[in-house]
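User: Can you predict the 3D structure for this chain?
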Amino acid sequence: MIKKIEYTEKQKKLAQYAKALGHPARIFILEKLAASSCCYSGDMAEEIPIARSTLSQHLKELKISGLIQGETEPPKIKYCINRENWNLAKKLFVEIFK
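Assistant: Here is the predicted structure, written as structure tokens:
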């Protein structure tokens, strides 16, 4: 009989953050956002050599994870680091690598 594993909320959250960090383009995006207060997706599209649709998908994954947040200012979308979740992610990664 296989025993069912019950994962903690911390484990689930850390896995969600790790998944979001699992692509170099997303790391690039996070570094860009961390270096400035906010950034428009159109500006990022000029700095990273990927298709806009691919950039949008990466932004979506980061937003789903909670690491970034987006604010629509038609016709643009402004993205920023979600500081609360960013600090939680840092704390969880530090705890696991002790």
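The chain has one domain: 11-96. Strands lie at 39-40, 68-73, 76-81.
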